[in-house]
């Protein structure tokens, strides 16, 4: 009997590069999103990322952390010590989502962030090719969250829909009331006509009886 060996590989879902949100609120958590998709999914690769930060009002871009699947998260800047969690690709060596999570935002976190993804592609015959991708995110820190345009438009549309439905319901009720009233009036007129017809017929019968006598 032959032995069958099943080869199991880790697969990543389809990668889509989505821009990060850029406004954080003091005292709250915030995800800084950075995604760098590999263009050829069939090519083996591995990657690591380094994040840099330039605080508002300064000119120096400082390395704050590094992450790879082997050494995990390493923090270099004390301003982010115990405040940053890894929120990107895990287990797989080819990092595509290299997002981070700031647990307690302060005004010191306002500024310019750069995520640098260093990816090595492995081809046949031990040939490797290195690619570096840098993405910049400007983070603004506010004391109170500002409502975005989408939520405002959604709320306006909700109120408009409520008003339209209310008007439609009132119009439908008026229409039904008029229809019922018209039907009731028609039935009353029909009953009155029948009553008058019966009364007239009774009078004629009575007159005929008197003449015969």
UniProtKB/TrEMBL annotation:
InterPro entries: Ig-like_dom_sf, Ig-like_fold, Ig_V-set, Na_channel_b1/b3. Keywords: Cell membrane, Cell projection, Disulfide bond, Glycoprotein, Immunoglobulin domain, Ion channel, Ion transport, Membrane, Signal, Sodium, Sodium channel, Sodium transport, Transmembrane, Transmembrane helix, Transport, Voltage-gated channel. It is a single-pass type I membrane protein. Residues 18-125 form the Immunoglobulin V-set domain. It is found in: Cell membrane; Cell projection, Axon; Perikaryon. Its main location: membrane. It comes from the Eukaryota. Pfam families: V-set (PF07686). GO terms for biological process: cardiac muscle cell action potential involved in contraction; membrane depolarization during Purkinje myocyte cell action potential; positive regulation of sodium ion transport; regulation of atrial cardiac muscle cell membrane depolarization; regulation of heart rate by cardiac conduction. The chain crosses the membrane at residues 156-177. Regulatory subunit of multiple voltage-gated sodium (Nav) channels directly mediating the depolarization of excitable membranes. Navs, also called VGSCs (voltage-gated sodium channels) or VDSCs (voltage-dependent sodium channels), operate by switching between closed and open conformations depending on the voltage difference across the membrane. In the open conformation they allow Na(+) ions to selectively pass through the pore, along their electrochemical gradient. PANTHER family: SODIUM CHANNEL SUBUNIT BETA-1, SODIUM CHANNEL SUBUNIT BETA-1 AND 3. A voltage-gated sodium (Nav) channel consists of an ion-conducting pore-forming alpha subunit functional on its own that is regulated by one or more beta subunits. Forms homodimers and homotrimers. SCN3B is non-covalently associated with alpha subunits and induces the formation of alpha subunit oligomers, including trimers. Interacts with SCN5A/Nav1.5; regulatory subunit of SCN5A/Nav1.5. Interacts with SCN7A/Nav2.1; probable regulatory subunit of SCN7A/Nav2.1. Interacts with SCN10A; regulatory subunit of SCN10A/Nav1.8. Belongs to the sodium channel auxiliary subunit SCN1B (TC 8.A.17) family. Belongs to the sodium channel auxiliary subunit SCN3B (TC 8.A.17) family. This is Sodium channel regulatory subunit beta-1. The gene is SCN1B.
């Amino acid at each position: 009997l032959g032995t069958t060996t099943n080869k199991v590989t880790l697969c990543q879902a389809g990668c889509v590069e989505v821009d990060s949100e850029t406004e954080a609120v003091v005292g709250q958590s915030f995800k800084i999103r950075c995604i760098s998709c590999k263009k050829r999914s069939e090519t083996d690769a591995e990657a690591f990322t380094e994040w840099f930060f330039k605080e508002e009002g300064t000119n120096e871009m400082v390395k704050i952390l590094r992450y790879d699947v082997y050494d995990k998260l390493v923090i270099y800047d004390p301003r982010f010590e115990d405040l940053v969690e890894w929120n990107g690709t895990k287990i797989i060596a080819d990092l595509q989502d290299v997002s981070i999570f700031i647990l307690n935002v302060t005004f010191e976190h306002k500024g310019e962030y750069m995520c640098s993804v260093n990816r090595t592609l492995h081809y046949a015959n031990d040939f490797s090719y290195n690619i570096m991708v840098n993405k910049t995110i400007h983070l603004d820190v506010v004391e109170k969250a500002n409502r975005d345009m989408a939520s405002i438009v959604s709320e306006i549309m909700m109120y408009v829909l409520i008003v339209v439905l209310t008007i439609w319901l009132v119009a439908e009720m008026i229409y039904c009331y008029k229809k019922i009233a018209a039907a009731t009036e028609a039935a009353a007129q029909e009953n009155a006509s029948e009553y008058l017809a019966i009364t007239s017929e009774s009078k004629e019968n009575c007159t005929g009886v008197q003449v015969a006598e």
